[in-house]
Amino acid sequence: MLTIRKLLWDKRNIFHIAKHDIIPEGIEEACEQKPIVQRGVKKNRLILLGVTKENRLLNVILENHGVGNYYIVTAYDASPEDTKLYKRLKGGDNNEATEK
Questions:
Q1: Alpha-carbon Rg of the chain, whole angstroms?
Q2: Angle at 28 between CA 46 and CA 100, to 5 degrees
Q3: Helices (H), the chain
Q4: Which of 13, 14, 67, 82 has the fewest CB atoms inside 10 Å of its own CB, making it the most exposed?
Q5: Model pTM?
Q6: Residue range 40-63: mean pLDDT, rounded
Q7: Does any domain span residue 12?
Q8: Helix H or strand E segment including 45
């Protein structure tokens, strides 16, 4: 299980996620809602697949900065393939987050 003690924000990552029409609160919600966690391609990175309170399914790329601190590299809407994975692992077709 992943324990996130703190998400690390700066102007760069806030501006970057805004390009994807995502706000920091959405990422925080997706990280709090028991996301699916996968290893990233690059060292010390994780890919979280999580849902916001508005039922938006997001991929969030985090970089481990130690002791439960993670820097947000980027975030974007989940692909159809990721949506299928989320449905399969989180309980089937009745999940509202996958109906976007």
A1: 13
A2: 85
A3: 11-18, 24-32, 80-90
A4: 67
A5: 0.86
A6: 93
A7: no
A8: strand 45-51
Q: What is the DSSP string of 13-25?
A: HHHHHHTTT--HH
Residue 62 domain boundaries: 18-35+51-92
Tokens found for residue 57 = 């399914």
- Indicate the burial class of 86 (C-beta count within 10 angstroms; 0-12, 13-18, 19 or more): buried
Answer whether residue 74 shows pLDDT above 90. Answer: yes
Q: Does 99 reside within a domain?
A: no
Residue 81, in any domain of the structure: yes
| Each residue's pLDDT tens digit, 6-40 | 999 999 999 999 999 999 999 999 999 889 999 87
Does residue 43 sit within a domain? no
